[in-house]
Amino acid sequence: MRQTNPTPLATVPATARIAVVGANWHTSIVDGLRHGAQKAYDAAGGTQALSEFTAPGAFELPVLAASLLQEGFDGVAVLGCIIKGETIHDEVIAHAIAQGCTQLAITTQKPVGFGVITANTLAQAEARSADNPNNKGYEAMVAVTGVLSTMGSLR
Fold first, then answer.
1. Which fold has domain 18-154?
2. Read out DSSP for 91-127?
3. Active-site residue, selected from the candidate residues 26, 35, 89, 95
4. Is 89 a catalytic residue?
């Protein structure tokens, strides 16, 4: 079944400071995710430049995202790629990142878009980071901008 990118829910608040943090592993995949996140931000009417940062690896994404939110960013999209290996290391790392990002969003009450691909093969990761309707960076940014918009309407 062919999917389509979700449509941004609303425009990005004009004063919103949003960051993108990408892991420094599988950089061609993460670059595709960054492109997708930028595309979603633009589609949501973002007017400020996205602030982009690089984490040493995927495991470090939650702590860097936490630092950015503490420094005044309103939301962050974390981007990375974990490919299945011979052991369950990928599962342990992916679970830790997801748990960390979930806890961070709840604790800070700021959106953390989860754009970390967990794939069995490089081909699967490439399909989810390409400039197509399955780009997970795009989806992560739609989540960030959508939550910011909804939270803004509650105030």
1. Rossmann fold (3.40.50)
2. HHHHHHHHHHHHHHHHHHTS-EEEEEEEESSHHHHHH
3. 89
4. yes
Amino acid residing at 82? I
pTM: 0.92
- Report CA 13 to chain centroid distance, whole Å: 18
Q: Which residue in 76, 41, 82 sits closest to 62, CA to CA?
A: 76
Give me the pLDDT at residue 6, please: 64
Sorted by where each begins, the domain ranges of the chain are 18-154
Can you tell me which residue has the tokens 């490089």?
Answer: 122
Dist CA 90 CA 94 (whole Å):
6
Give residue-wise pLDDT tens across range 90-130: 999 999 999 999 999 999 999 999 999 999 999 999 999 99
87-104 exposure pattern, b = at least 16 Cβ within 10 A, e = fewer: eeebeebbeebeebbeeb
